[in-house]
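User: Could you check the structure of this?
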Amino acid sequence: MGEGKTRAGITVKVENLGPLKKAEFEVGDLTLICGKNNTGKTYVTYALYGFLSFWHDFFFIEHNDSCLIQLTKQDIENLQKFGKTEIETEALIYTINNAISLACEKYIEEREMIFGSNNISSLNAKFKIDIDGLIQQLLKSNVDFPTNSVFSLTMKKNDSKVIQIEAPKRGYDMEWIDSLNSFLSIELFGYIFPKAFIASAERTGAVIFKEDINIANKRKMEQSHKIIVEKQHVEGNHILYSNYPLPIEENIEFITKMTPAEKRYRSYIYDNHNGILTFFSDIIGGKYVISRDGLRFIPNSDKKLKLNMGGSGSSVRSLVAIDFYLRYAARQGDLLMIDEPELNLHPENQRKMARLFAMLVNAGIKVFVTTHSDYIVKELSNLITLHQDKPRIAGIREKWGYSENETLEADRVRLYIAGEAKVKAEGDKRAKKINTLTRARIDQETGIEAPTFDEVIDDMNGLQDDIMFGGDD
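Assistant: Sure, the predicted structure tokens are below.
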């Protein structure tokens, strides 16, 4: 069985973020956050999404220099003479880590943008991105950074301490040098931080009320801006924090912008993995169409019907944003984040969503979900155990109708349980029980161990046994 393109991910560390006192998690090719209600799953999801949305601003707008990475005079001379140059990575890694550290500090100071002005986390909250694992893997790989630029950037496999840059031979003026520096900075950081799209848990209602929400929000912003200008006698643009968290706002914005014009664009999935869209249409039970009359749903059971969102089922409404993202916006290397993908779905379709995630991962789209669904976790566990080069396993895949592109390498999956656990903090003599994230064990042969679900199921089974076999009345 062919090996997937496993890649180390960034590690996120947080302190005093909502219910979470101290926690960390690595973003794998597929990442799941499970746990009871109000344990911090949404906080870490929103925090990660916010940083991935704003990293460019923090690096290249807030920073003193327009480019974080500067080529030396010798580098420029090499490009002029030979059309290529090689740079040592040691100083480069220091620059990258320092920039990320400063960006994280600035980001957490502006967390009102992410969580909403009425939902601000603790004043001493901390947020840190660690890319050591990703960098170490980069240094051992031969990586061609995808780009549409005239410049090219390659990490050389034969020399783990060198990055090679190629460009047309020419006499470089300052504008071209700035372009080179900017290219190097953006390509490296863009490779480290994937482009994220989020489907929030509020997506179902947003589809029904998208026009009303859009109008109401526009009026609110206009009125707020008018009050500020009149009371403070100031002019210009102002950052006005919404009462809605950023992921919800951007999800609503994405939904409100779904128009017939979207059909002019086709996603990476649309062009290269159309079978995924066919599979997803089976989960939806039909297809979405956009006309001048607005968004409509045509069910497979009666293709003459064109239902508006108010007249469609809740599962149809919960999946529309994901469908449009996959068809018209998805790019290779993206991070698709879904808050509670099981919303309004029958257990059969929850299992199919797990299979969809595996297909996307194998197609080059990272997936990050928070879930309460035992069906999704158990099905993902099955997909991991089905990824084995054994005749018996191959027979099982064939018998149950699973293809190889639905199976998963264990190393590509991360699952964390949000809840209380003993953690020894720096400086403490003993471990203390705090609200944190605990990484679950995942094995290629045995799958996922997720006690947060198993305990509840065992409890229910025990109750049922007592009812049925607990003795005479």
